[in-house]
Structures are given as structure tokens and as C-alpha cells.
Amino acid sequence: MVSKTAVPYALGAFLLGVLGLISSDFAFQWQPVPDTVPLRSMLASASAVAMAAAAVAAVLPRLAKGGRLLLAIFFGLWAALLHGPRVVAQPSTVAEWLGLAESATMSAGGVALLALSLGGDLRRRLAFSTRIAFGLCLLVFGLSHFVYLSFTAQMVPAWLPWRTGWAAATGAGHVLAGLAFLSNRGLKAAGPAITGMMGSFVVLLHIPRIVAEPTSRMEWTMTSVALTLTGAAFALWRLNVEYQASSDSSANSAPSVSDSLQPR
């Protein structure tokens, strides 16, 4: 049976792979591979095939662990090798941090999906590390909304009133959710809220733009990235809330000191 939890994430990654294969190119600013790289088109096609194949594997029970791990590594390489050097070169530019945060979130989503199929101490460690990483990335998302407020407002659908207000409100939403993940408090509310907000971007913002420009590779790419980010948020929410619930259950079922002192 297909893993429903992984579907949004895997579908976004699959679409990115298909777009790369059709265009024989990397994913614009999300994969800022220099034009001077030898055999660039061949590498882009190979990258696209690998991503699409890993995305399919990520939802199939027998192949899920390998597919999710490959996607986590793949997006992690985007973050470390492509965006990391750009952040180092321009550490005061929020746009560069945004690119790093998007790739890091997509990588963390793959790790979270992998962790959902694991148990024990490894699951605990992965839940902690991805929660912290996602929390930091959400702060960057929120900061970018305020630093580029005018641009963000232009992305809000024209039929919505108070576009600047919506841009600021969603930025604040990212920040609040980031603080919730970092502090490990209020995740039962913050998790669905941030997942729903990211999902609303796909439905209200990106899909109508595709309808308006159905041949635009940029619009399809933006939608695919937004869908992958939504899937990553969903996986990270599920992992951390389920782990928190299991930890609370274990703590409640453990015998107390006073119980151990009772006569048998």
C-alpha cells in the first residue's frame, strides 16, 4: 500500500524530476549549478531521473526507506554544495539564506519520512535534529517575508484584499511556527497550522498561476517546490508529534519511585 504521509512530498519531488528531464536543465535558483560545469545538460538529466525514481520509491513500502534517504541526501546536497557557498559569500543577503532554508527543509522532510519508519534511539535523534533544523528554516522563511515585503505582497492573489497585510501575517506565522518547533511547545497546533498555510500557497497562489501560464516551466517549478515544502512540513509535524506522544506514553507507563517502594 502507498504511504499516504509521503505522497505530497514525493509528488513534489517527482514533478521536479519530470521538469528536469523534459528541460534537460536544473531547477532554476533552487539548483544554482554554474553554466560552466562540464556536461551540464547530461548531469541535469541524470539528476532528474534519479529524483523522479527516488520519489516513486519513497511511497512504495518495500522501497520507501531507500527512496526517502536518497531524496534527503539529494536535497541536502543542494543545500550544502549549491547554496552553502553562496551564503558564505553573501552572509548578509536574506535571499541566499532563503535558498539554503528551502533546500534544507526539503532534505529534513526526507529524513523525517525515513524516521517515521524507524524506531528506538535513532528515531529520537532524527526527530530532534529535524525539529531544530525546520524551526530555524521557518525563521528564515518568516524573515524573508518582512525583508522582501513588497515582493511577497505581489505574490498574494489579486482578489484578496490587504495584500501587504497577508504577506506580513504569513511571515509572522512562519516565525511563530519556527519558535514552536525550536522550543518543542505547541506542536499540536503549530504543525497543522504551518502545513495548512504552506498547502494554501499551493492551492491559492501557485495552481492559479499555472492555469494562467500552463507552459511556464518556472510556474511549474515553483509549484513543485511549494508542494515538496508542504509535504516536508507535514512529515516533520507527524514525526515530532508522534514521537512526543510516544514519549509521554512511555513516561506515564513507567513505574514511579513511590511505586517501587510499595511492598509486594
N to C succession of SSEs:
HHHHHHHHHH
> Structural class given helices, strands, pairing?
mainly alpha
| SS elements, strand count | 0
Per DSSP, the total helix count is: 10
Mean of all residue-level pLDDT scores:
93
Span from first to last CA? Answer: 48 Å
Question: Can you give a write-up of this model?
Answer:
The protein has helices at residues 7-23, 40-57, 64-89, 94-116, 120-147, 149-155, 163-183, 187-212, 217-253, 257-260. The chain is mostly helical and 264 residues long. The chain has one domain. Helix 1 runs antiparallel to helix 2 (40-57), helix 4 runs antiparallel to helix 5 and helix 5 (120-147) runs antiparallel to helix 7 (163-183). The longest helix has 37 residues, at 217-253. The relative contact order is 0.13.
Task: Name some characteristics of this structure.
264 residues; mainly alpha; 10 helices
Short recap of the structure:
With 264 residues, the chain is mostly helical. The protein is 78% helix and 0% strand. The chain has helices spanning 7-23, 40-57, 64-89, 94-116, 120-147, 149-155, 163-183, 187-212, 217-253, 257-260.
Secondary structure elements and their pairing?
Blueprint: H1 7-23, H2 40-57, H3 64-89, H4 94-116, H5 120-147, H6 149-155, H7 163-183, H8 187-212, H9 217-253, H10 257-260
Helix pairs in contact: 1-2, 1-9, 2-3, 3-4, 4-5, 4-9, 5-7, 5-9, 6-7, 7-8, 8-9
